[in-house]
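Researcher: Can you fold this with iron/sulfur cluster in place?
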Amino acid sequence: MNLKLKKILYLPHPRGFCAGVDRAINIVELSLEKYGPPIFVRHEIVHNPWVIKDLESKGVIFIENLRDAPKGSRVIFSAHGIPKSVLIEAKAKEMPFIDATCPLVIKVHNEAKRLYRDGAHIFLIGHEGHPEVIGTMGQIPLDAITLIQDKQDVKKLKKINYKKVALITQTTLSVDDTKEIIDELKCIFPNIIQPPKEDICYATTNRQLAIKSIASKCDLIYVIGANNSSNSLRLVEVGKRSGCDETYLISDISEVNWKLVEKKQKIGLTAGASAPDILIQEFINELNQLYNVEIKKISVADENITFKIPRELSE
Ligand code: SF4
């Protein structure tokens, strides 16, 4: 007879790694194979401590500034993208580089450059200090782009008279919050130019839809991710707003509050776009050890997107 307490585990899909993260990690691993360690990576290749530790153990050195690597060192740029100035610096220091910026971030960079050439002042909706925002703002002169973090920032724009305006966004924002900010912007600038296709990427959108689909069914949700991972933080917000007040971010099972788990019956588990599946699996294994677990899988979208790796590494 099974005397273990019963738990229901909701596993929404999609969750975890996206195509951009997969590509960036692949680029680092293939570079290690081809060129051998040490390989320098500017900024965390993706925002996840497990991934960073794993790559460090294989000979990757993470740096924040190119000056922290010897002149001429091989360097990889992280998935979040870089401002133009970093590219110029790498060339000046004769550092062979590989750009692991996600192609969907590059798309936003290209939009910024095109809109600037067309004479528009650009509003970038995003979070100050995030490397993706720094990279996007660094594609054009700083006086041609204004960062908008929330609706309060939009109100401040009323007094300024721009001839032509456009908007772009960070790729990992809350879909709902961003829509509200865009609506506010449209009230002030009815003719504002919008990207032909959403800048918030498919992976961010799908993971938010997925957590929404389980939130009202769960007493507790854990989102596996990292404090500096924008899309993971957004998942926690969406979980809370969509019906599960007890939605928490954890980096791995060491942060699970098992006393809380004991009290809850319906538990949800998902992961941000930079969190590896092994961390999800560890949680499931532990839960299975302790309880009689019924798994309920809910899928809201199919994902079969992949991005090519640079030819230098694929040949
Ligand atoms: S979250 Fe989106 S933009 Fe960021 S790496 Fe993944 S696919 Fe690219």
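Model: Folded with iron/sulfur cluster in place. The first strand starts at residue 6 and ends at 13.
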